[in-house]
Amino acid sequence: MRDLGIYIHVPFCGKKCSYCDFYSVDYTRQTAEDYVSAVLRNIRYYSDKQRTVSTVYFGGGTPSLLAPEQLGSILGDIGNCFALDTQAEITLEANPCTLNEEKLHELRKTGINRLSIGVQSMIDSELKILGRVHSAERAEGAVLDAAKAGFDNISCDLMIALPNQGTESLRYSIERLTALPVQHISAYILKTEEGTPFDCDDIKLRLPDEDSTAGLYCEMVRSLEERGFMQYEVSNFAVKGFESRHNCRYWKCEDYLGIGPAAHSCYNGKRFAVERDITGFIRDDVQSVTVTDESPCGYEEFAMLRLRLKEGLCFNDVPEHRAEIDEKLPPLIHEGYVRTDGERVWLTSKGFLMSNSVIEYLVF
Q1: What is the mean pLDDT of residues 213-225?
Q2: Measured in whole angstroms, how far is the alpha carbon of residue 221 from the centre of its chain?
Q3: End position of a domain, from candidates 250, 268, 299
Q4: How far apart are the first and last CA of the chain?
């Protein structure tokens, strides 16, 4: 039985955030119903009882806009069409404004056992700049309600390097967030994506410069680890044992099947992507995909992804490349970007700040 993760892209948003370039459309009840029907058709198309599904991830968009019954029907079909592990990690991304205690109890009944709540900041003025519709108080209430409903695996998103952000405001958000019953934090540096409302001089001129961003990142790592949230990937921190099993699939080149417009897959020896078109997804009997890599997870990709993880790259996994890696290590070690114990190499916090450049130098 080969292990598999399933990613469901739910492309609905009540209000698109000003910094976001993920594929999403406005939510309507009819479109959501048609979308769910299309998801079920595709699950049945890919049906394979020889694959054990150990992780399911509802991402978006705002997956929590779907009704618990709709999410339950999707999980039911996954269980019918694959061998769904009884201990599977099943994650739902959620906006705080879409959650209440009653709905959270219903979500628990569907089998969802992990929440990823889009908090971003615990300061109302920062949330307003980001275009978020919730307040810090609402975010806090959503986490507390989730814990009351029985969720004991809760992740929250945090965003850093916001316009005019300093270390004190970042530290405040971290202190307030980690005081809540959460076990995982995904922390991202804000980037101005082309074509978004944030792609303008008014925002760019207020963003921290490179040195200030580096300082904020290092402060974030230090503050989170002081509170028991250990870094295990460039942007992810967890209490021991609560690392995201599904996201680790991506960094370890393990199989995952993506369903929904704009979803990506690494499945049965190929990488492919679904068209960013909900109309076509709903219309077609089977989602339309484009193969993006005929033979994924070669040395460069494998090493690049492994180096995103705090555990790093094990030399025994790439013995034929050991000599060329060893030759490139001395200057990186001298500058404090990487460390090695002779069996593996991993990036330091300073290295993670420059991860793209460090990894490119080391691997390519």
Answers
A1: 96
A2: 18
A3: 250
A4: 34
Angle at 252 between CA 73 and CA 346, to 5 degrees: 140
Task: State pLDDT tens for residues 73-98.
Answer: 999 999 999 999 999 999 999 999 99
Closest CA to 258 of 22, 12, 43: 43
For 202, residues 6+ apart whose C-beta sits below 8 A from its C-beta are: none
pLDDT attached to residue 192:
86
What's the DSSP call for residue 238? E
**Pair 157, 33 in one domain:** yes
User: What are the E-state strand segments in 144-296?
Assistant: 154-160, 184-189, 230-233, 236-238, 256-259, 264-267, 270-274, 289-293
Q: Is 264 a domain residue? A: no
Structural domain of residue 339, as residue ranges? 312-363
What would the two tokens of residue 355 be?
A: 């991860």
Residue 149 has pLDDT above 80, yes or no: yes
β-partners of residue 289 are 274
Average pLDDT of the chain to the nearest whole number: 96
Count of domains for the chain: 2
> Of 250, 275, 303, at which residue does a domain stop?
250
Q: How far apart are CA 57 and CA 308, in angstroms?
A: 20
**What is d(CA 282, CA 307) in angstroms, rounded to the nearest whole number?**
38
Residue whose pair of structure tokens reads 């079909």 in the numeric block: 77
Integer CA distances (angstroms), 327 to 181, 330, 340, in order: 45, 7, 13
pTM: predicted TM-score of the whole model, two decimal places: 0.95
- Around Cβ 26, how many Cβ atoms within 10 Å? 11
* In a domain? residue 232: yes
Are 155 and 114 spatial neighbours (Cβ–Cβ below 8 Å)?
yes
